[in-house]
């Protein structure tokens, strides 16, 4: 659809880098953020629907200076983080009650915050509407590679770092560190909290992913099945599925409650899309994410392709050529995907729109509050249990 580019001259020195390691949409889809390189995060108010986005894309690129859009008083912002930015995560804080107003929300209204994970181990948390720095969270001893807020709107933040730990922070208590999770022996690349806020998955430079309890902050199980480093993970919107992506060129779909492998998606070369003069030797995965309704996956791999997968199929339903992709994320309301690249650019792609079947909507509603074990205990036919637990799609 379109492309965003850094709006400042390229500086090549040891203090900065130009990669877009992370992109993020706010939960309501009103803001977009990307780490555009050179220690800078760009915040863009996002009133554009797909039609407006397509009109804008007629120019093929949004140029070196991103257009400023107005959304009421909202203005595009540039956050100078002082260090290379690796991880981004949005969260909305609820309105304060009984006059106990958080300084970040002086008018007592819900406010939006953005957490940024930095090269020196710091986490800086910003108030989006004003661009003011709220907290600097200290504790990690190396790069903060990824961040994940509890999806229920609580101010609980989990960070994943190259110091081989995950840390849990409570922003409602001035960013107090609640817990340190140790168990990885390699750099931690990714962390994801389940939508029901009961589980946390973390992926490191290891062949297994770790599943943690968000209630007791203890290890539930190791998910073993990959043949190389696991680098990305994501939960389905109903928390019933977990996907992990690895340098072994495979995505594995898991039942997080039982640890069972449900499906493996293999990234085989699509020879017809490649230039015959160049040979691609690897399709190591970089990123995987679920679509908002939970029926599709998007993956970015080193073979210069963005792929979109349907849960019930074992081959991609769509793909697009892209160079040096590092990350991907669906728009919260569906319809398109944002991807980040090594040159600091963000690209936007159309994604299949789907009207969920009544069966899937019922399954999604039930699985939001029923675990796999609770479904299996229901007095219903076996085939229905298999459908509800994603054993059949």
TrEMBL record:
PROSITE patterns: SOCS, WD_REPEATS_1, WD_REPEATS_2, WD_REPEATS_REGION. WD repeats lie at residues 114-136, 137-172, 181-222, 223-264, 278-312. It comes from the Eukaryota. SMART domains: SOCS (SM00253), SOCS_box (SM00969), WD40 (SM00320). Pathway: Protein modification; protein ubiquitination. The keyword Repeat applies. Residues 357-393 form the SOCS box domain. The keyword Transferase does not apply. GO terms for biological process: intracellular signal transduction; protein polyubiquitination. Keywords: Repeat, Ubl conjugation pathway, WD repeat. PANTHER family: WD REPEAT AND SOCS BOX-CONTAINING PROTEIN 2 (PTHR15622:SF1), WD40 REPEAT PROTEIN (PTHR15622). This is WSB2 protein. The gene is Wsb2.
